[in-house]
Design goal:
The two termini are about 20 Å apart. The mean pLDDT is about 95. The protein has one domain: Rossmann fold (3-Layer(aba) Sandwich). It has a seven-stranded parallel β-sheet. By secondary structure, the chain is α/β, with parallel strands linked by helices. α1 runs parallel beside α2. The chain is globular and about 45 Å long. It contains seven helices and seven strands; from the N terminus they run βαβαβαβαβαβαβα.
Length: about 180
């Protein structure tokens, strides 16, 4: 299975986020899954790639050229594809994936996550979306989305479009148990 992971490149957050990302990378590789991610070598991005690579996993990075010039891309990836812009990056990551996993991150991670949820809601992406709730990071998101439903911007049943899990060990079982959505 090819799993697209959204996560942060920042080195500033609590080190537990990088530790969990590293462990998640190990679990993906041990399960025989390919990691598809943004190609960065720092923060949770670098940690998840390092974790997968430490277990001889396949790691595929997709990075816009302008970011490759500004950020340090990971130097040991199985493959790094440079693309024209962020839009192309996001679409290639989704097109190549069988599931999406969102780790804690900033506005880029949240933007990617919300776009993917929207695409799943519209039937344009049928695969599972899992949120790894390290240090309760996604609890405010869950609260916000409950408010969206309460205000009837989304139907109550649409909260099944994604799943929240608390530990890396719960991610792969959640993906396996997720319900496919028809276009």
């Amino acid at each position: 299975m090819r799993i697209c992971v959204y996560c942060a490149s920042s080195r500033l957050p609590d080190p537990i986020y990088r530790e969990v990302a590293f462990h998640m990378g190990e679990l993906l590789a041990e399960g025989g899954h390919t990691l598809i991610y943004g190609g960065g070598g720092t923060g949770s991005m670098g940690a998840i790639a390092d974790g997968a690579l430490s277990r001889n996993g396949e790691v595929f990075g997709i990075m816009p050229r302008f970011l490759a010039e500004r950020e340090l891309s990971h130097q040991r990836l199985t493959k790094l594809e440079l693309v024209a812009n962020m839009r192309e990056r996001k679409h290639k990551m989704l097109d190549k994936s069988d599931a999406v996993l969102a780790l804690p991150g900033g506005c880029g991670t949240l933007e990617e996550l919300l776009e993917t949820i929207t695409l799943r809601r519209l039937g344009q992406y049928q695969n599972p979306i899992i949120l790894l709730n390290t240090l309760d990071f996604y609890q405010p998101f869950q609260t916000m989305m409950a408010h969206v439903v309460a205000e009837r911007f989304m139907a109550e049943g649409e909260t099944v479009l994604w799943q929240l899990v608390d530990r890396p060990e719960e991610v792969l079982p959640a993906i396996a148990e997720a319900t496919a959505i028809s276009p």
